[in-house]
Amino acid sequence: MRLKFNALCTVNAIKICTLSATLLTLEAIAQLPTIPSQELGKTLNQIAEEFSIDLAISESLVAGKTAPVVEGADTAIEALRSALRNTDLIIEQLSSGAFVVRESATVVSPSGEENARNSDVKDVEVIVVTAGRYEQSINTIARSSIVIAPQTLQKDLTRTSNIGDLLGTRVPGFGAPSATDISRSNQLRGRDPQYLLDGVPLSFNGGAGIGGFALTKFDPEIIERVEVIYGPNSVYGAGATGGVIQFFTKQAADEDPFSVSLRLQSTTFLGGDDTFGIDTSYKPTISVLGDLGKFDYLASYSFDKQKALIDGEGDISSPVYYGFSEENFYFAKLGYEFTREQRLEAFYNYQDVDYDVSGLNVRIADDGRAVAFEDPTVVSPQAPITPFNEKEIISVKYEHSKLFGGALELQYYSRKDERVGGFVDLRANALNPGWPTFWPSNYQATFLDESDGFRSRYYYDINSKLRLTAGIDIEDQERQSDAFEFLLPPDFDQTGMTDGTAQEGLFGFPFTLETLGIFGQAEYRINEKLRFSAGIRWEDVEFSIGAGRRIFERTLDAQGNQVARPGGSGENDGIAYNLGLTYDINDNINIFTSFAQGYEVPSLSQVASRVPPEQELVSNEAVEPQIVDNYEIGLRANYDKYSYSIAIFFADSELGQNFIYDPVTNEGVYNRSPQENYGFEAVFEWTPVDFLKLEGLFSWNEGDFDPDGDGPDPEVPLTTLDISPWKASLFADWFINNDVTMYVQALIVGDRDRAFDEGVDLYEINGYEVFDLGLTYELPKGTLNAQINNVFDKTYITPTSQTYIGNPNFAPRVAGAPGRALSLSYSVMF
C-alpha cells in the first residue's frame, strides 16, 4: 500500500520530527528502493516514509553522521538497523508501535566516568522472532515473553554450562535448577515446552520422560540469545503445550572477513579435598568467524571436562547424572546471500560424550544425599560396549524476503541421538532393597533416536495493518531401544566378569511417529492502540509401536523364552486455536490477554510400558493426544528508569501427562487423567541511579489432576517433578567504571508440601536460598569474569532430587547441590 506523509516538526532544544501517514492508493510497495549514502537524518526520514512508521529523531544525535547505502530491506526494523550499523545509535520500538532513535545506553560511575553498555541490549529486548516466525515487538504479542540478552547469557555461562539451570534462574515459571543434565523437571508452567535451535525442534517426542536430554544437544557457547514465549503456540504445534524456548546461534560479525574468538572457563569447588584436581572442571572454546561479502561463516570447538560435583558438605555428589564426563562439541554454520532478498544458511552440530565413574561407590547420607566415594574394592564390569552418547543436528534453511510481495522460509533438518548407558545393577542390595531377587543380573541400555523434518512458512502484509502467515511442518521420528542383560556368576563382585550369557532385543518399546501440521495466523492492527491476533493449526499423527517389555518383567512361554507385550499402530488428529488482544493504555503501559490451545502427542514408549498387557494398546486412551486450553492476562510497563510485567494464567486438559509413584511398588505410574495448571509471574527491572541496575523475577504455579477420573474437577496436587515450588531471583549490577562491573545474584526456592500431604510425593519439599557474587573486568585485551557461587556454602538438595527421597529404587539419584565454587572465564577476540 502506497502511503503519503506529512512531516510535523517542532523545534525545541532537541528537534524531533514525527511522520503521520495518510492513505493514498492501494498500490503495494514491492521493495524498499535503494537509498544512496547520504546524511543519516535524510535516510531515516526516507525509510519512515516508505514503511509508514512513526519515527522520532533527535537532530543532535544524527548531526554530522552519514548513512551507508540501504537497499532491499524487507521490514522497517531491518532498514533502520542497516542505516545505523556504522554508528553508536540503536532503534527502540515503543508500545504504541512508534520507533525512536537513541544513543546506546551509558552509565556514570561514582567517579564521573562514562561506561558504554552493549548497544544491542535494548534492541534485542524489544524484538522477538519466535512468536509468529517473524520479527515482532514484544509489546505486540498477546502473551508473556522473555529475552535473555547476549551479555547476560555470557555472564551466566561463567557460573554454569548447564543450560537448564541457567533457565531455571532466569525464566519465571521454569523448573528450579536441578544441578543435573536431565531435564525431567524442566517444565514451563507445569507443561512441556518445545525447545528449538535456530528453528530445529530438539525434543524427540512429546510427553513426560521423553527428550529428557534436550538441553544437552548443543554447546551453550554457540548461543547468542534465548527467547521464551509462554503458553501453547499454534505456529509451532506439537510439544509446545507449555510454551516455546528458542536458542539462536551466534552470527559472524559484519564486514570482518576473519576473526578468532577464544574462551576458557573453569570451576573449582572450594570445599573439596583435592583443589585443582578431582573437583575442578574446565572448558576451552575456540571459534573462527567471518563475513566474506556474500559468504559468512562460523566454526566452533569446545572440550568440556566435567569432574566431580562437590556439595556443601565437601562430599562428592552422586555421579548418576552429572560429572565425570568428557564432552566434545563441534559446530559449523555457513551462510550465502544470493541477493539482498535471498539467503541460504546451513549448520552442523555434533557432540560426543564419554563417561567414567569407575572405582566409585555410593552411600546414602542421613539427610538422603547420595554421596560418592572412591572404593578400591569396586571392580568395573566389562561392558559389551563402552558407554557413550553421540548427538548430531543438521539444518539447511532458505529465506526469500521479497517473494510475491511476502517473505518465504523453508527449512530441512535431521536429528540423531545415540546413547549406550553404563551397567545398572539389578540385584537387591542396601540401595535397592525393593528390587527383585530372582534374576541376579546387570543390564546395559541402548537408545537410538532419529528424525528428519521439513518446516515452511510464508507471511504477507495485506496492508499496513494486516499480516497473514501460513505454513506446513512435517516430521518423521524413529526410536530404537534395546538392552544387553547379563546373568552374573558368583564371583562377579571380585572379577567384574559376566558368564557371557546375554539377552537382548526386548527391552523398551521401539516406535515410529509421523506428524503433519498445517497452520495459519493473522495479526491485525485495529487502531493505534489495539491489536488482534488469531490462528489455527491442524495436526495429524500416525504412529506404530513395536513389541517390547520392561526390564523387570519375567513373562515366559512354554519353552522358557521371554514374552514381549504386543505393540500396535494408530492415527489421530486435532485442531488447535488461538485468539489474542493487546491494548496500549499509553506509550508506557500495555495490557494483553489470550486464549490458546496446544496439541501434544503422548510419550509413546512410556505409554506402551504402562498399559496392562491384557489391554489393546491402540484402543486405550493412553495413546490419545493431549489438547490444552490456556488462558492468560497480563500487563507490561516500560519507563525510562524501570519496567515490569505481570501475568496470570490457567490451563486445563481432559488428558494430562504426568508421573506419580506407586507406594506399593515404588515405581512411576504414567497418568492420563484430567489436569489443570495455574499460576502468577512477575518480572521487574529498575535503574535507581545510572551506575546501578536491579532486576528480579517471581513465579508461583500449581497444578492438580484427577487420578481416579471421578471428577468433577482435578483436586489431587501434581508431583513436584511437574510443579516447581515458588521461586524468586534477584540480580544487582554495579557499574563501577568503564572496566569493572560487580554483580550479586540470589535464588530463593520455596517449600511445597501439598503433594506430600496427599501422598503423591514421597518427601516434603524444603526450600533454600543461594547467593552468588561476581565481577566482570574489561582487560586491555579480552574480558575476565570471576564468580563465587553459593557464597555461604549452603548444603541443600534441589526439588528434583528431593522427590526421590524415600524411594529406595531411586536413592542414588538424590544428588546434593553444588557447594561453594570459584568460576572463572576469560574471553578474547582477535
Task: Give the structure's gist in a few sentences.
This protein has 830 residues and is mainly beta. The protein is 8% helix and 47% strand. The chain is globular.
Topology:
Blueprint: E1 3-10, E2 16-23, E3 38-39, H1 40-51, E4 55-56, H2 59-62, E5 66-67, H3 76-84, E6 89-93, E7 99-103, E8 106-108, E9 114-116, H4 121-125, E10 127-128, E11 136-137, E12 145-148, H5 150-159, H6 163-170, E13 193-197, E14 200-201, E15 223-230, E16 243-249, E17 259-269, E18 280-291, E19 295-306, E20 316-317, E21 325-337, E22 342-355, E23 360-364, E24 370-374, E25 388-403, E26 406-420, E27 424-425, E28 441-461, E29 466-487, H7 492-495, E30 502-503, E31 511-525, E32 530-545, E33 568-584, E34 589-600, H8 604-610, E35 626-638, E36 642-653, E37 658-661, E38 668-671, E39 675-689, E40 692-705, E41 716-717, E42 727-735, E43 740-749, H9 754-757, E44 768-778, E45 783-789, H10 799-802, E46 821-829
Helix pairs in contact: 1-3
Notes on the structure:
The structure is a single chain. Helix content is 8%, strand content 47%. It is mostly beta strands. Strand 42 and strand 43 form a beta hairpin. The chain is globular, with a radius of gyration of 28 Å. The two termini are 46 Å apart. The N terminus is likely disordered.
